[in-house]
Amino acid sequence: MRPTPEQLAAAADGTLPDVVAPGLTVLFCGINPSLYSAATGHHFARPGNRFWPALHRSGFTDRQLAPAEQHLLPRYGLGVTNVVDRATAKAAELSAAEYREGGVRLVAKLARLRPAWLAVLGITAYRAAFGAPDAGVGPRDEPLGDTRVWVLPSPSGLNAHWDLPALAAAYAELRAAAA
């Protein structure tokens, strides 16, 4: 059910629980929750977000999961978290300090959960959180602790530089590396 304007407004600065388990193959890391996601309680829930279709088309899942099925991700060896926990209407509302603090929290989370791979979904988010201004899409040479890192484009419908087939192909490269 679509959130009402009142529910969206009430979701500002809200948070979403991570979908995680120890020893995941890939922990996907969004920038931060949208108001829509915070209002529904589901990651990547906005109808224009392409995370769930890209996940399926890349071969990570055997069918396209709905946001409400996010609890099934650990069965596939997958999980979801965010760099910044605070829900906003746009990622541009986040401060540089929030990104840096989110990067520190993410490293601690990785040490606790020990996923094989971290997939940061957004080049700008990775650059800001980890002080890597020249980072691009693809694998990073530097792991975060024992976790290897791959930077992927944001699946947001606002990211016009990457259409769904290109996103799915980028996700498939990570899937092949993680296999």
UniProtKB/TrEMBL annotation:
NCBIfam families, alphabetized: PRK10201.1
Lineage: Bacteria, Bacillati, Actinomycetota, Actinomycetes, Micromonosporales
InterPro entries, sorted: MUG/TDG (IPR015637), Uracil-DNA_glycosylase-like (IPR005122), Uracil-DNA_glycosylase-like_sf (IPR036895)
Keywords: DNA damage, DNA repair, Hydrolase
SUPFAM superfamilies named in the record: Uracil-DNA glycosylase-like
Matches recorded under SMART domains: UDG, UreE_C
Ligase listed as a keyword: no
Gene source species: Actinocatenispora rupis
GO BP of this protein: base-excision repair, AP site formation
Domain Uracil-DNA glycosylase-like per the UniProt entry, residue ranges: 17-175
MF GO annotations: pyrimidine-specific mismatch base pair DNA N-glycosylase activity; uracil DNA N-glycosylase activity
Domain of life: Bacteria
Protein name: Mismatch-specific DNA-glycosylase
